[in-house]
Amino acid sequence: MPATIDSVFAREVSQLQSEVAYKQKHDAAKGVSDYAHMKEPPDLRHAMEVNKHQSNISYRKDVQDTHTYTAELDRPDIKKATQISKIISNDAAHAQEAGMR
Prior knowledge:
This is Nebulette. With 101 residues, the chain is mostly helical.
């Protein structure tokens, strides 16, 4: 069949419409995946929940380990602070006793 102006024009219009329809369909489906709508088997769901709980437990354990404070009572600065605190406390007690007499 010889290519006439009308047949060439009709072919081009058909191709453009096809491309436009394809792009519209693609844009409408953008961001939607079939994977998100798949059902997961019960054993996979159970494994995911167990993993999540184990991760949460280990995270909390690590946090507790890092937030506990253990001070050494034999450190010189703590000993000095304790001595100063006792001296101040004794001075305050003696001052109150002297004021009461």
